[in-house]
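Chapter review. Work through the record for NAD(P) transhydrogenase subunit alpha part 1 before attempting the end-of-chapter questions.
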Amino acid sequence: MIIGILKEPQGESRVSMLPEAVKTLLSWNTEVCIEADAGSTAYAEDNTYQDVGASIKSRDELLRQADVLIGIQPLSPEEIALTKPSAVIMGQLNALYNPDLTKLLIDQKRTAFSMELVPRTTRAQSMDVLSSMATVTGYKAVLMAADLLPRFFPMFMTAAGSITPSRVLILGAGVAGLQAIATARRLGASVFAFDVRQAAKEEVLSLGAKFVDVEGATEDKGAGGYAVEQSAEYLQKQKDTIHEHALKADVIITTAQIPGRKAPLLVEERTVRAMKPGSVVIDLAASSGGNCALSQPDQTVNINGVRIVGIENLAAKMPQDASKMYGKNYLNFLKLIIKDGNLNLNFEDDIVTGTCVCHDGQAVSPRIVQMQN
Ligand code: NAD
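Structure tokens for NAD(P) transhydrogenase subunit alpha part 1:
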């Protein structure tokens, strides 16, 4: 069985597997082929893949020959047409939000797995690319803010006077938000955080940050630990509280998301206009509508000296460790579907079923089935 590791498109610097992960894959009695130059943007040259026993192929050869195609960004319809009808296509296909691609894969009776669909259960934690990439994103967002901020993060007592610590406000304390809190704390900032889930409060406090409470949030125990949409009244109360905190903040990092919905608007235009000049807003939800009214995807906007950075794929800005984590998540997942060097799709396994977009002309993942109804 040939496993093909694809080179990612322009602008994506991660690779789905570094040589270390490929070495493990090869030890499972498989043949692994790498698209030429696939790892160079993550600092893994072709020869480092060859050193562990993989061979290098052109994209065309890989698409036509591989039995399992592994990548991060999805293939185009034209490229899918080049692959073997029996090939298993894997990536972060964004299948729930890309109905045209999902339909095409179902209509063409393809077998496809979409890594963002890995169920967020304890057993699947080691395969969860969303958590891995959110960890990278939360860390990197703080470094980016610290770099842009015209002030120190930590407190300093110097002969030239004392410097008070910067004040950082984190909105949304999920995986990315918690990593942002931990990183900002390590840099010595005074950190405040806010989330609609009460479960997040304990985690925020345990990281040494202060929790901003806004009472009256709606929670749904059946939402798998995720947030749900809030009432208009609650959202207004929340925006007013954020406004008060924003006046004192040097940095705001927003990470609030609701699966399947537009990101909630938390930082209004009046709030940005009232912030101190020099302060920085990093909006990690910019690609799903933005938590800040003035953010633009992949752009930095300057409003009276307040810089608002809208970021789409921050994990790609730290490609080496992001690729290492991605590859490890992939390996843990592939362990479920490869046995003795061959494909072994066990649809009795909830992780296999939950991650599978389609097989044999049918939608498989309950989330895809639900999307179709
Ligand atoms: P996410 O990216 O969907 O959202 C980020 C955060 O935004 C969440 O904490 C959410 O509560 C918050 N949020 C949404 N609306 C908000 C609002 N109006 N105001 C403030 N905050 C708001 O979430 P995520 O980081 O991927 O994960 C969230 C939770 O899911 C985790 O904390 C955990 O409980 C659970 N989880 C479980 C597993 C697992 O068991 N394998 C893995 C990952 C996450």
